[in-house]
Amino acid sequence: MAIGHRQKRVGEGIDLMIRSGEVLCLLGPNGSGKTTLFRTLLGVLPALSGSVQVGGRPLREWSRAELASRIAYVPQSPAMPFAFTLEELVLMGRAAHVGPFAQPSPHDCRVAAQALAALGVGHLAACACTEVSGGERQLALIARALAQEAGILILDEPTSSLDFGNQLRVLDCIGALRAEGVAVLMSTHQPEHALRVADRIAFLRSGRIVRQGGPDVVAPRALAELYGTDEALVAAGMPGFGGRAR
Questions:
Q1: What residues contact 228, with CB distance under 8 A and at least 6 apart?
Q2: Would you place residue 132 in the very low, low, confident or very high pLDDT band (cuts 50, 70, 90)?
Q3: What is the CB neighbour count within 10 angstroms for residue 52?
Q4: N or C: which end of the chain has fewer CB within 10 A?
Q5: Beta bridge partners of 211
Q6: How far is the C-alpha of 133 from the C-alpha of 115, rounded, in Å?
Q7: What is the DSSP code string of 146-200?
Q8: How many helices (H) and strands (E) does the chain have?
């Protein structure tokens, strides 16, 4: 598959598959095409060649409502122009389950509350998203995706604005979703996060998948080549990668 904007190619030769109950983590430097790839997988951008399939069906054959019930997406900390409360923001994730012009049911409200609690921000449910920290807002966006109860979750650098404790909380949630059979595709600049939760890891460089496999692909030499840095610098940080949480 080739990806890009109109006729400007950002990447090509991309071949990825993710199964239910699997976490696939994408590593790559800034500008390598990760966000463009995600927007293509979501149908926001058309593939310049090749195709995207969901459940064996081409993406174009799915209605937007159908996709909303199958795929949840967490972007990189978008701006919030309206002062929705965190509860209202998370309830938006229930839109695929609520009929036209209908109000959220008590069940929808319970699902939203549970999602906020799982991310540790339940006590902020009544706060406006414009009045909480960027990290707390990011947690609410992840909670919104959880409340959607979709079978596929796409996360674009979900822990980038979070402190250490909240990073671990998000990673634990990802592990719990895997156990429930959810397919998770995420990008990160933290190789140790990939080692903690990923079943498979793919390296994206200059719009191409240059390496893919199990956690053993994350080695100092491979990371040095991916990020264009010195292998000794990478090796110095490797001891802190720790074990995988299962």
A1: 29
A2: very high
A3: 17
A4: C
A5: 203
A6: 18
A7: HHTT-SEEEEESTTTT--HHHHHHHHHHHHHHHHTT-EEEEEES-HHHHHHH-SE
A8: 9, 10
Q: Find the angle CA(216)-CA(218)-CA(219) to the nearest 5 degrees.
A: 95
* Cα–Cα–Cα angle for 87, 91, 94, rounded to 5 degrees: 165
240 — pLDDT class (breaks 50, 70, 90): low
**What number of residues does the chain have?**
246
**CA nearest to 113, candidates 143, 135, 138:** 143
Average pLDDT, the chain: 91
Residue among 37, 71, 68 nearest 153 (CA): 71
Q: How far apart, in whole angstroms, are the C-alpha atoms of residue 120 and residue 173?
A: 11
pTM as predicted: 0.91
Radius of gyration of the chain (CA): 18
Fold annotation for 3-78+150-239: Rossmann fold (3.40.50)
Please report which confidence band the pLDDT of residue 242 belongs to, taking 50, 70 and 90 as the band edges.
very low
Euclidean distance between CA atoms 162 and 34, whole angstroms? 20
Model pLDDT for residues 45-101, shown as the tens digit of each residue: 999 999 999 999 999 899 988 898 899 999 986 667 788 999 999 999 998 888 777
CB atoms within 10 A of CB 66: 14
Q: What is the DSSP letter of 102?
A: P
- Which letter does DSSP use for residue 49 in this model? B
Given a cut of 70, whether residue 244 has pLDDT beyond it is: no
20 φ/ψ angles, rounded to the nearest 5 degrees? -60, 140
Rounded to the nearest 5 percent, the helix, strand and coil shares of the chain are 45, 20, 40
Q: Which helix (H) or strand (E) holds 3?
A: strand 3-5
